[in-house]
Amino acid sequence: MSPRWPWQRHNDELAEELESHFRMALADRLARGEDRAAAERAVRRQFGNRARVAEVTRSMWRGAAIEAAVRPVRFAVRRLARTPIFAAACLATLAVGIGATVAIFAVVNSILLRPLPYPEADRLVSILYTAPGLGMAEVPQSDASFFLYHDEARAFAGIAAWSQQPVNLAGDGTPERVDGLVVSREFFEVLQVRMELGRPFTDADNERGAPLTVVISNGLWHRRYGGAATVIGQTIRIDGTAAEIIGVAPAVVRIGGEPELFQPARLSRATANSGAVRYSVLGRLAPEATQATALADLARVLPQLPERYPGFPKAMFEQARFAPIVRPLKGEVVGDIGTVLWILLGSVGVVLVIACVNVGNLFMVRAEGRHREMAIRAALGAGQAQVAVHQLIEALVLAFVGGAIGLLLAWGGLRWVVALGPAMLPRLHEIGLDGWSVLLAVTIALLAGLGFGSLSALLPGFRPKFASLREGARGASAGRERHRVRNALVVLQMALALVLLVSSGLLWRTYQGLRAVNPGFSGPESVVTLRVSLVGEQFPDPAAVARADGTIRDRLRLVPGVAAVGAASELPLEGSRNVKMFVSVEDFPVAAGTLPPTFPVRWISGDYFKALGVPVAAGRVLDQGDDDMRARRAVVNETFARQHWKSAGEALGKRIGIRGGLWEIVGVVGDVREGGLDQDPVATAFFPTVGPDATPATRDSLYATPGLTLLVRATEGGGSALAPAVIRAVHEIYPDLPVSRVRSMDDIAQSSMARASFAMVMLALAAGVALFLGAVGLYGVISYVVAERTREIGVRMALGAEQGAISWMVLRQGFGLAILGIGVGAVAARAVTGLLTSLLHGVGPLDRVTFGTVAFALLAVALVASWLPARRAAKVDPTVALNAE
Amino acid sequence: MAKVTGFRDRIEVLQGTLDLLILQTLAWGPQHGYGLSTMISTSSGNALQVDTGSLYPALHRLERQGAITAEWTKSEHNQRVRLYRLTAGGRRHLAAERSKWEQLKEAIAGVLTPPAGSKA
């Protein structure tokens, strides 16, 4: 039988009591000679409804039980209300500490810890190549490798390929450009998601030549179709092609950003090419497989690739040393934000510790203030245990109320963050408080409450004693142990504050360093960039795309205030999608059958360099005149020139080869940080995008993507002011063409620093709070010491001590603690800042300037925090001090 | 609340007087619930009958307030019964209730007795 709870026992007893009443009443009537049936009836009538009687009776003690639990809490609240400043200080400190910790934990939990929102998401992996022979750490997959894995690998329950494919939507409603994916048939199946509406893709959808069918996202469904079920079967124009909507994907499908439209990839084994490395592959591990066995399985299969599919010849394939990579899909979704978040969690944890130390200090000071009260209570017969329990309940009440406020703060803060929608936080819509966050808040509150509550009761020298009645009255010096504990706490606070200050200082130096970095182009604020996608019936082939590119640029040059217009395949500082290609250099031939080196390549048209503001190092830049690609003129950057020749000038007239053709270098341009402000420039080659005169032969050999980023430089002032006129001008020529991602180069530079600035701001906040709390802690302790020593100071002054000497005596103590704290903190910081290395740029983790500045600043704050009480000490009036009490 | 049943000349027990009746009865000695109800009705000449729906909540409330205590014992018929006993606090409570009752009685009597000099 299960153990009976106290209230169940109580119920049983009540039932028994009523039963005995009933039996006795019956027995009496029977004894009086009534017949049994009549007697029972009479008793029952007299008794009334027994269940109701029991219920009313129970209500008497149920209320009692609640009251028994509530009474001590009520007393605690009443006692706390008598010291409102103390209570408010504790609550505010705890609420901020717990709130910040819980909020950051919720972010970490939502982004890093919680599995992706798919069934058995821990079995989902993404598959890539690494190619050390090409100097590439990561290479995407090709349709050929996808088919090879799909057909031959045994460690997977399913494998799917996908690729990002933004599209222009038209047909019904306003034309817009949305992010989208092309996916192989297995995509939704591998993720194991059910369509919100309609059906996923079938093999028939993936047949080449079949009418185009698409799946739209939940978001697009609601935005464009108001969530109507009739959307299935409707026609939508995708990049000018009519397509039937067959399904609505659930909101959880967030892979490759926030795709809103899914098209069938229509891959075919017949045309697969191992050189077409533009797909991402995701797989679901088979039940018995692990990441390691899956990796081994792929490594076993991969060598068959050059034999099975055209593309890389076997020799090249081996020279490149292609090898598979298998890693959790979550890493793909989460990206490199993990380090920042863990560091943040660590720093708010430190703030929480500092906050708790402060509250603990407040408790100790108050406990000492109440020393006499406690002693009197103890003398009047309140047991030590009872006094301790009161303290504990007060502490727990404070901790839990503080925790509750903290949870509210965290909830509000998270909603704010989500509403703000920082682009750098993945899985943004999954961020929120969950059971774990609440559990964390409760746990912290409980531990903190128990800690504060027992601090005063357990620490030596705090127990109320009869002696205190005299001791307190005569103001004898406090116990040494008490001081030692409090001093140790202040040193701890100072040390932790220093660690956070150093960390945020290093990030600040990184940020400042990045701001000072020369991106390689000038006047970014005057340049506005916008993206257009020249797809659909209007632009049937690359020549048409090129003509349209030229037409748009010609029109934009006529917009008043425009100085130069250029276009490029990709913008600088956005190197995440940096394309590397084989580029041979005529002067440095490689042996036959081996691979030429790879370099990042950019395709440009119009006055790209002029619009961006890139200086010329030698020769001239490509301009409108070079759009004629029959001339085959190219430009390289300084690093490229220096890597191959002695000087930039020597590169002029040399020839480089790409995809078979040789191109003459007509100019060398300054280095631009293509990969981001924190990435050093690398050797890069620039070719003109395919020109309007491209023949079928030349256009296939070069770049012909319809996705185009236009750069427009204003003659003066901010480029953003030009944006409306520029967009109007584009729409004058192509009314239905969506224009997306309108940003100034300055915005792009800012977002290149987003991670560094985010980490810096957050850490600076944490460090600021830590510094403030640490200063308050030091101030509190020194003030208390002064108050305690008032009599002693009075005696000293009466005996002729100078005011300065008294101030110095107090100041020295504060300084001593601060210096000790700074010393301990410096040692701790040395150990900790190594963790920041991946976030730092241009500054080492042990940067002396940062350490020195922070130590000095902390010392200055400590000086102020000790000086205020020191001044008070110097103003002690000996007569008052000696006559007190 | 308690009410008198079964007889035509029944008396409505005033709010609050049940506590007095219970405490007074227990002053004679410890008693269980059934014993209390029979004693109250016998000593009032069957004029007052306390129903169980009022008696037990009152007993448990008084117990919680500390006026009485309870313990399980065997009755004379060898039945397990819950025996209630007056505490020192209960005695003080009883004295207070009694004096309140006396004041109330006199006050009511004062109202019911025609004042001297009036034509009744």
Which chains have the largest interface?
Answer: A-B, 26 and 24 residues
Total of domains of chain A: 4
Strand pairing plus helix content of chain A: what structural class? alpha+beta
Structural class of chain B: alpha+beta
* Oligomeric status: heterodimer
Describe the structure.
The complex is a heterodimer of chains A (885) and B (120). By secondary structure, chain A is of the alpha+beta class. In chain A, 52% of the residues lie in helices and 16% in strands. In chain A, strand 22 and strand 23 form a beta hairpin. The radius of gyration of chain A is 38 Å and the shape is globular. Chain B is α+β, with helices and mostly antiparallel strands. Chain B has one domain: Arc Repressor Mutant, subunit A. Chain B is built from 4 helices and 3 strands; from the N terminus they run H-E-H-H-E-E-H. Chain B has a 3-stranded antiparallel β-sheet. The A-B interface holds A 13-14, 16-18, 20-21, 23-25, 27-28, 46-50, 52-54, 56-57, 59-61, 64 and B 5, 32-35, 37-38, 49, 51-53, 56-57, 59-61, 64, 72, 75, 77, 79-82.
How are the secondary structure elements laid out?
The complex is a heterodimer of chains A (about 900) and B (about 120).
Chain A: H1 6-31, H2 36-47, H3 50-82, H4 84-113, E1 124-131, E2 136-139, E3 141-142, H5 143-152, E4 156-164, E5 167-170, E6 176-178, E7 180-183, H6 187-191, E8 197-198, E9 213-217, H7 218-225, E10 235-238, E11 241-249, E12 261-264, E13 277-285, H8 291-301, H9 305-308, H10 314-320, E14 323-328, H11 329-334, H12 338-369, H13 371-379, H14 384-420, H15 435-458, H16 467-474, H17 480-516, E15 527-533, H18 542-557, E16 562-568, E17 580-582, E18 584-585, E19 598-606, H19 608-612, E20 616-619, E21 633-637, H20 638-644, H21 648-651, E22 655-658, E23 661-669, E24 685-688, H22 696-701, E25 707-714, H23 723-733, E26 739-744, H24 745-752, H25 754-788, H26 790-798, H27 803-832, H28 848-874, H29 878-883
Parallel strand pairs in A: 7-12, 9-11, 19-24, 21-23
Antiparallel strand pairs in A: 1-2, 1-13, 1-14, 3-13, 4-7, 4-13, 5-6, 5-10, 8-11, 9-12, 10-11, 15-25, 15-26, 16-19, 16-25, 17-19, 18-22, 20-23, 21-24, 22-23
Helix pairs in contact in A: 1-2, 1-3, 3-14, 4-12, 4-14, 4-15, 12-15, 12-17, 12-25, 13-16, 14-15, 17-25, 17-27, 17-28, 18-23, 25-27, 25-28, 27-28
Chain B: H1 17-27, E1 31-32, H2 33-43, H3 52-65, E2 68-74, E3 80-86, H4 88-112
Antiparallel strand pairs in B: 1-3, 2-3
Helix pairs in contact in B: 1-4
